[in-house]
């Protein structure tokens, strides 16, 4: 599959970039016996960058990872699922540091070369006997094989129904450079970075400040543009690591191939973001909302997020109801400049509103279209040049069922 400057690597994973290995296992945090502890390891100190949840209540692992990333490098990241280690006080913080120190000891690394991430139930202390026992077994699982990457991706899932991973190759200085990502996310997803756990690896040689800048820019147009339920988690983070093994001249915005690399990097982020939105808890379809003609890109983003986050719009998508009134109502309450007389709305290619006036359309065709597993909504404001796209899912009975019994 080609797309201008990069190639999608079918079957690629987080260990496809040179210099990385991974592994995962079941240590006992999850009652169902599924993997709940995973690790990514780089052979050398990797240039590293991260973004974190904007929730003011933040889990203990975020503080530990921020500390480890203070020098802009990492060798490994250890992740557990089944327990968020959030709102667990001083004990939770000590436990996050113990996870970091235990993995560092097992791999022969300095503690500040290790990042820590957790996901799962909030407010319960980690079973550290299980976690530390699992960490002792992790090094034997760490390999540069697709099966090991699979064990890692399974270890980070909670209510997810499917794993999320994507990998691309792009030429830099005539050399193939690989970019890969893996993510988890299904509920407690809202566009305030990070809205999930995600991990990216690349064998590019890149300046750390440039990597951090690119990560933030990519996040703004991808992960920050998805929503499932309007809730931003306490644990979310996105970590990117670059081994430099590809052997290219160091990348930064002044490099002639910077734009090509950035395009591939953003593609990976977008693919993971869309996969999270599609796998929203109880969801039956991916919903994509594009807003054109806003006064600015920032305004378009705000409007697109409001539409995709509307419970009424999401319910209409579930019911395959072409209720465009819910869409224009969400546009109008987004708090952004809108000319109330110039709004067009399309569902796929079906025009339902033009110049803010109803258009006769075939209800049966609209019903059939909205029954599909991917629905696109396009809003043209004719008020400026700003455009943005957001992704989400429908709101179903199963979303309530899943979250009503999350702890039980």
TrEMBL record:
<comment type="similarity">
    <text>Belongs to the ArgJ family.</text>
</comment>
<keyword id="KW-0028">Amino-acid biosynthesis</keyword>
<keyword id="KW-0068">Autocatalytic cleavage</keyword>
<feature type="site" description="Involved in the stabilization of negative charge on the oxyanion by the formation of the oxyanion hole">
    <location>
        <position position="120"/>
    </location>
</feature>
<comment type="pathway">
    <text>Amino-acid biosynthesis; L-arginine biosynthesis; N(2)-acetyl-L-ornithine from L-glutamate: step 1/4.</text>
</comment>
<feature type="binding site">
    <location>
        <position position="281"/>
    </location>
    <ligand>
        <name>substrate</name>
    </ligand>
</feature>
<keyword id="KW-0511">Multifunctional enzyme</keyword>
<comment type="function">
    <text>Catalyzes two activities which are involved in the cyclic version of arginine biosynthesis: the synthesis of N-acetylglutamate from glutamate and acetyl-CoA as the acetyl donor, and of ornithine by transacetylation between N(2)-acetylornithine and glutamate.</text>
</comment>
<protein>
    <recommendedName>
        <fullName>Arginine biosynthesis bifunctional protein ArgJ</fullName>
        <ecNumber>2.3.1.35</ecNumber>
        <ecNumber>2.3.1.1</ecNumber>
    </recommendedName>
</protein>
<keyword id="KW-0012">Acyltransferase</keyword>
<comment type="pathway">
    <text>Amino-acid biosynthesis; L-arginine biosynthesis; L-ornithine and N-acetyl-L-glutamate from L-glutamate and N(2)-acetyl-L-ornithine (cyclic): step 1/1.</text>
</comment>
<keyword id="KW-0055">Arginine biosynthesis</keyword>
<keyword id="KW-0808">Transferase</keyword>
<feature type="binding site">
    <location>
        <position position="408"/>
    </location>
    <ligand>
        <name>substrate</name>
    </ligand>
</feature>
<feature type="binding site">
    <location>
        <position position="195"/>
    </location>
    <ligand>
        <name>substrate</name>
    </ligand>
</feature>
<feature type="binding site">
    <location>
        <position position="158"/>
    </location>
    <ligand>
        <name>substrate</name>
    </ligand>
</feature>
<dbReference type="Pfam" id="PF01960">
    <property type="entry name" value="ArgJ"/>
</dbReference>
<dbReference type="InterPro" id="IPR002813">
    <property type="entry name" value="Arg_biosynth_ArgJ"/>
</dbReference>
<dbReference type="GO" id="GO:0004358">
    <property type="term" value="F:L-glutamate N-acetyltransferase activity, acting on acetyl-L-ornithine as donor"/>
</dbReference>
<keyword id="KW-0963">Cytoplasm</keyword>
<feature type="active site" description="Nucleophile">
    <location>
        <position position="195"/>
    </location>
</feature>
<feature type="site" description="Cleavage; by autolysis">
    <location>
        <begin position="194"/>
        <end position="195"/>
    </location>
</feature>
<dbReference type="InterPro" id="IPR042195">
    <property type="entry name" value="ArgJ_beta_C"/>
</dbReference>
<feature type="site" description="Involved in the stabilization of negative charge on the oxyanion by the formation of the oxyanion hole">
    <location>
        <position position="119"/>
    </location>
</feature>
<dbReference type="InterPro" id="IPR016117">
    <property type="entry name" value="ArgJ-like_dom_sf"/>
</dbReference>
<feature type="binding site">
    <location>
        <position position="403"/>
    </location>
    <ligand>
        <name>substrate</name>
    </ligand>
</feature>
<comment type="subunit">
    <text>Heterotetramer of two alpha and two beta chains.</text>
</comment>
<feature type="binding site">
    <location>
        <position position="184"/>
    </location>
    <ligand>
        <name>substrate</name>
    </ligand>
</feature>
